[in-house]
Structure formats: structure tokens, C-alpha cells
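From the shared-data thread, chain only:
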Amino acid sequence: MYHEALKGIIEPLAVQHTVLVLDKELHCFPWESLPCLINQAVTRLPSLSCLRDRILQQRRQQPRKMDDANNGEIKFCVDRRSGAYVLNPAGDLKATQETFEGSMDDLGQWEGLTGVEPSEEQMKGYLQERDIFLYFGHGSGSQYIRPRTFQRLEKCAVALLMGCSSGKLTEAGEFEPYGTPMSYMLAGCPAMLATLWNVTDKDIDRFSETVLENWGLFLRQPAPDSSPTKKTARPRGKSKARHSPPAPALSPENGNMSLDQAAAQGRGSCIFRYLNGAAPVVYGIPVFIR
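Structure, as C-alpha cells:
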């Protein structure tokens, strides 16, 4: 039955979210890319206490629940109009800047910096006063805000940190691992998307763009014309290898996909499906755009 389900013979069940509470020895593995979890909505958290805090946070947000079209189901939602971004702060990721600069300008009421390094006060303001924070640069952006500053945040935005090893935790022997994800979780971040190891810029840009379109933040771009004169990436690996199925068409007005669902669908957009596609993981709980 398991293998039949993988082949799509059995009709898929309604979307269910899986939360992984990982031991300090297991956090470095990309469990979300296992065959039994691929294309599934999966997040990870460091402890059950952390999960409990986010469930209580979700209950406090009940006045912002979705309408009856979703059977009255309570979902943690963020306002797509309330966001901030830091794009190419070091100034050396020109291709990344060209990919996202236009989409950032279309977000209207968002604040942000392009090609400029933010101050710690600016980073603090982006995380504390906004619902969504996007970072496209080197690392996790921790070079611009100290861990102790996170401890003073009254709240923390949903964060997408699309840099190398932005979600990596550092082992500390008998003690719990530490790193940027822990800082965000301790600050009350509902969810953050980050990478477990170093990734290539073109692939992670492609992944990020797909995720933000699936999530409902960016308008979906039209499919490229399959002209015979246009160069296309050759399939890699054995011929029976399968790519992830395309995500359903969504727009910011009718987006109903959570961040972890969008991340799962986005893995198939990477040319290097396991080198780069398995690196991004979501810490936290499912978060939706409204």
C-alpha cells in the first residue's frame, strides 16, 4: 500500500501537517526529503514545549481565523501587506537581486533594503513590527543582529532566510545545539524557512521564487514557452527518477497553501534536487497568507 501510494495509484488524502520534534543528534538530517515525506507538509521544532507555545499563540489569534469557505478551520495567518526584506546586503549577488527586485517593488507597503547592509536597529524593527521578513544574502543574517537582541523582541515575524546554512545548528556536546533557528524560535517566531547546508545561488533563487508564488505572496509567473531554440536543463539521474508534481495555480487573493506546503512543492524546482532541494526546511508551525 505504501509503494502504491507513492506511485499515485491511491487517491491522496486531505493535506495533513506533520511536526518533527528532533533530538539534538538528528537535527542535521533532511528528514523532509525521505520518500515517505516528500511533497508532504512537514515542519520541525526543537521541543514539545516549543510546539505548545505556538499552539497557544495560534489560539490567541482566533479573531483572524479563515472564513467558512475553509470549514471554519483556525489557521495561523500573516498579513501579506505587512512585511520587510533585506536583498543582497553584501552587494555581490547581482543575479539574486535582479531576480527579486521587481517582485519586492510590487509588494507596495513593504519596507526593505537592496544592496545595503542593515543596522541592528533596522533588523530589530523588521522582525518585531512586521508579519513577514525575507532575507536574500549570505548566511542567515545573524551578522546583522546579535542573539541577545532576539531575547528582547516582543514578537517575531515569520522569516524566510534564503542564505547558505541559515538553518544549521551547531552541536554543543551534552548540551542542546544552538544557532539562528533557536534564536528565532525563542523569540516566538511562528515559522521560519532556512537551509541546513550551503546551497548554490541560482537553484535556491529558483526554489525561493516558487515557494513565494505557491504561498501566495508573489504573483505566479507564466510558464516559459517551450521553444525548441530555448535551452533547457537536461534531466539528471536515471530515467525513472520522478520530479515533484507541479503545484496548483494560486494567486495572492486565493492562496490557501501553508508555508511548509509551499516549501515541499518548491523542492522539485531545483535542478539539484538533493544537493539544494533537500536543504531548505521549515521550523515552526504551518502559516498561511491572508
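Residues 201-215 form the longest helix (15 residues).
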